[in-house]
Amino acid sequence: DAMVIQNPRYQVTQFGKPVTLSCSQTLNHNVMYWYQQKSSQAPKLLFHYYDKDFNNEADTPDNFQSRRPNTSFCFLDIRSPGLGDAAMYLCATSRGDRVAYEQYFGPGTRLTVT
Amino acid sequence: KNEVEQSPQNLTAQEGEFITINCSYSVGISALHWLQQHPGGGIVSLFMLSSGKKKHGRLIATINIQEKHSSLHITASHPRDSAVYICAVRSHNFNKFYFGSGTKLNVKP
């Protein structure tokens, strides 16, 4: 059974047209992460939620926003996609207690910007 | 400088060979993860370790906390092992992960 689900798997958007990617989880994990991964590069953390607390990485562009309406769902909004935003977007979850737990990744959404 | 460095970046092996991928990190960690990513993007967690050694089938992961170094070994490699292997560390700020750039493994039949 899928535990971290991302929709859609493939998304094509036009330059400047807002797009939303979604992630849901059945694990009841406290922490949800959004990563951007470009070809042949390591995933780059954009931001994460610890419960409802939003934690933005210092170098994440303002163009990227996120929402977490409840424990199960998290959204990545790209307000005005540029060609450089074409990438694989990975959602991951983890328990956020004071003990290290594994991250569980979704299958990713591949974003194309035309 | 990246917090996590992996070597080699690319590795080609013949089926049956013993493979080692190395990972060094520079931050204080609570755990180190080895991840596998196949073409198409999905990432699977192979190991999470904070000390010693773990084994799962043909895969073995070791970590030396004092030296800030970990290795992933694959015994009797097989073409289906071909993937990108990523080392990631979870920092003492427990919710922050740092990723290596990955090792692309190609096992030829």
Protein architecture, described:
The complex is a heterodimer of chains A (114) and B (109). Chain A is 0% helix and 51% strand. Chain A has 114 residues and is mainly β. Chain B has 109 residues and is mostly beta strands. Helix content of chain B is 0%, strand content 61%. The radius of gyration of chain B is 13 Å and the shape is globular. The model of chain B has no long low-confidence stretch (mean pLDDT 92).
End-to-end separation of chain B: 36 Å
Instruction: Write down the overall geometry of chain A.
Output: globular
Mean pLDDT of chain A: 92
Strand content of chain B: over 45%
Structural class of chain A: mainly beta
What's the total number of strands of chain B?
Answer: 11
Mean model confidence by pLDDT of chain B? 92
Unreliable stretches of chain A (pLDDT < 50, length at least 5) are none
Helix content of chain A: under 10%
Main beta sheet of chain A: strand number and arrangement?
7 strands, mixed
What is the N-to-C succession of helices and strands of chain B?
EEEEEEEEEEE
Keywords:
heterodimer; A: 114 residues; mainly beta; seven-stranded mixed β-sheet; 51% strand; B: 109 residues; six-stranded mixed β-sheet; five-stranded antiparallel β-sheet; 11 strands
Quick synopsis:
In chain A, the strands form two sheets. In chain A, strands 2, 4, 5, 6, 9, 10 and 11 form a seven-stranded mixed beta sheet that branches.
How is the secondary structure organized here?
The complex is a heterodimer of chains A (114) and B (109).
Chain A: E1 4-7, E2 10-13, E3 19-25, E4 31-37, E5 44-50, E6 53-56, E7 64-67, E8 73-78, E9 87-94, E10 104-105, E11 109-113
Parallel strand pairs in A: 2-11
Antiparallel strand pairs in A: 1-3, 3-8, 4-5, 4-9, 5-6, 7-8, 9-10, 9-11
Chain B: E1 4-7, E2 10-14, E3 19-25, E4 29-37, E5 43-49, E6 52-56, E7 59-64, E8 69-74, E9 83-91, E10 97-99, E11 103-108
Parallel strand pairs in B: 2-11
Antiparallel strand pairs in B: 1-3, 3-8, 4-5, 4-9, 6-7, 7-8, 9-10, 9-11
